[in-house]
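Quick entry, no commentary yet.
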Amino acid sequence: MKFFDECTNEPAKPWLIKGVLALDEDSSWYGPAGGLKSSLLTDIAVHGAAGRDWRGFKTKQKFGTVYFALERAGLQRRRLAAYAKRDGHAGLPIAVVDQIVDLTDEASVRIVIATITTAQERFGVPVGLAIFDTYAKAVAAGGGDEDKAQHVNLVAANLKRIHDQLGQPIHLATIGHTGKDETKGERGSSAKTGHIDLGVQISGDKVKTATITKANDQPEGVLTSFVGQEVTVGTDADGDDLTAFIVSPMAVQAAPEQASRLSDNQVNALDTLKTTIKDHGQKGAVAVHAWKEELFRRGVLDRDAPNPREPFRRLKASLIKTQRIEEDNGMVRFTSTNAIPMTTRAAAGIISPCPVPPPIPIR
C-alpha cells in the first residue's frame, strides 16, 4: 500500500522503446490477415535485441524476446533468417517457441514462465518482451472463444499472473485480427480492450500504417507507416527460392483517406466536433469528454448501448487513423487541413441539414 504523499515519488515509466513499449504492460497488435502484423512485431524484437532505435523511437535498453509462434513457426524462423541475411545480425537474444499454449488455463502460467527463464539463461540479457501469435489460437487451444468475455478475462488473469510470478518486469504482446469491418477494431470481446495498456491497429494496402487506438499515457494516432520487403533466405529441394517478408527500413508516409470514404457516422461526428469546439472549446480544441457528451445528446451515439464507451472509442480511433483529428492530453482538435465547414458539407450533399437540439452547458 502507498499513501498520497508517497505517490509523488513514483519512478519514471520503464520504457523498452520510448513511446512504444514499456515494461509491466500488455499490448495488442491487430489487423487483417496478411497485414504484416507479425512482421512489425518481429522488427521491434530485432531492434530491441540489437539495442538499436526503432523507426525514430529510442530503444532505452537492450532486451531479449521470446516469440510464442502458436501458428506458422517455420515462417517466423524464416523472418529472423531474413534479418540475419539482410542486416548481418548474429546471436540476437530472440527465441521462437512452436509449442501450443492455452492461455485460458492457469497451467499456462508455469509453462510460459519456465520457457522465458530458460531462454533468458541462454541469452545473458533480460527478456523484456514476450509475443503470443496469435491471440485467437492461444484462446482456442483449450476450446475457448475470443468472442466470449469469460474466456478473454481468463486470459487477462493469466497474463497478470505471469507478470506477478515471473520475478522481473516484462511486456506481453498479443497479435490479433480485425473482423470484416476494420473500423470496428479488433475482433472478439471488447473485454480485451479494457485489459490492455496499448492497442495498435495495422491497416493499409501496399503502405501499412500502425495506429495507436488505445494508450494509457501516450498519445493516440499514427505510430509509424511502413512497407514490407521480400528477402530470399535460401532454396528448397527443388531449387526454388525460400523467402520471407520483413519490414523495410525505408521511411514511408501513408496518405490520409479521402473525405468520400467517410461513413455517415464519421461525418456527423466531425460536424458535432466543430460545433462543440465553437461552443465550448479553447484555442481550436475541446475536451474529449465534452465531444463525447454532445455525440450522445445528438443521437450520433447511443448512450443506452450495452457498452457505450466502446463505439465512441472506435469512432474516435477511426478519425485519428484517417488523420482527421488529433488528440493530446485529453483535448481533441481537427488536424490542420481537415476542418470542413458544416455549410460546405451540407451543400455538397455529404450530410443533410437537419435541426439540432439547442446546446446544453457542459460542466
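second:
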Amino acid sequence: MKRMLKAARLAVVTAALTSTMAFGLVAGQGQAAAEEKFKVGVVTFLSGGAAESFGVPAWNGGKMLIEMINQGGVLPAPYDKKGFGGLIVDATVVDEAGGATKQVQEFRNLVQRENVDTVLGYVSSGDCLAVPPVADELKAFTILYDCGTPRVFEEASYKYVFRTASHAAMDNISLAKYMKTRNVKMDTIAGINQDYAWGQDSWADFKGSVSVINPGSEAKTALFPKIYAGQYGTEISALIREKADIVHSSLWGGDLQAFVLQAGPRGLFDRSQVAFAAGDHVLPQLGQKMPDGVIIGARGVNGLAARPRGDELTTMLWNEYEKRYGTFPVQAPFRMWQGILGLKTAVEKAMAANGGKKPTQ
C-alpha cells in the first residue's frame, strides 16, 4: 500500500440522483434577481457504474465549492470575491448517464430552455466528442472539466469549447516515464482497457510511449471489453497466461472496482506489475482490497498526489470535503474544482474588461 500511495503522489499531469435535477446554490437570504446570477449547467454521472466513485464525488466537490464561492470571502485570493465577479452562481446539474445521443439533447435543453450561461461537464469520452460540435453550433460557452480523450481538439477545432484538465496522452506518457525512472521491468506489456475512445486512446498512448522509452519491448495481449461489462473472468485468465511484465489498464469507475476484486484472488497482481493509469478514484471504495504494489495514477496532481502540496487553497478544500463527506477527495472533485475556478477566473477577467458587466459571449 505504501508503494501504491507513493505512486499516486508522483503521478504527473493532472446520494444517487436520477434524470435532471436543479440545485439553486444561492448565498444569503432570499432569491437573487435574475440579472444578479450566472447560470451554470453542470453535467456529470449521478447514476450508473460511473456515479459512485467518480460522478457523485465530482458533484459533491462542485456544489461545495459553489457554496463557498457564493458566500464570498472564504477562499484565498484570487478566488475570494463573492460569486463570479459579484454574480451569484446558480447551478443546474444533469445526470450524464444515458449515452451521447441523450447528452446532446440534454445539452440543447440546458442552453435553449434553461438559458444557462455556461455548460461545465462531461466525463465519458464519447460524450466529450459528441457535445463540442453542438456547442459551437449554438454558440454556447462550454468547459470540459474531465474528458480523457485527447481527440477533442486533435481532430477538430472549436471556438466555444475549452478544457481545463489533462487528457489520456499526458496520463500514459507520464506513467511510462515513471516506471522507467523506477527501473520497473517492462520488456513485455499487456493491457485491458474499455472498448471506446478513452480505453483505446489510453492503450495506444501507453504502448507508444513504452516503445520509445524502452526500445525492444514487446506488446502482447491487448484486451478491450465493453464498457460497464462488469465480469472479467475470461480477460483475467488471458492476462494470467500471458505473464507480461506489465499489465496496463485505464479501467475506471465500477469496472475498475470489479476488475480488482475479481483479479486479486486469482493472483494476477502477483504475476505481473499492474499499473492503473487513472485508478486513484476507487481507493475510498476499495481501501485495503487494493493490492499492495499496484502503480496508480491520479490524472495529474489530484487526490492523494495533491495533498503533500500543503498550499492554502488545497488544504482548505481538502479539509472541507473531508468534513462534509467523511472521505478524502479523489481526482474527480479536483478536476471539478479546476473547471469551476477556471470559469470564475475567465468570467471575472471578462467583466473587468467590460466595465463590470456580465459577459454574454
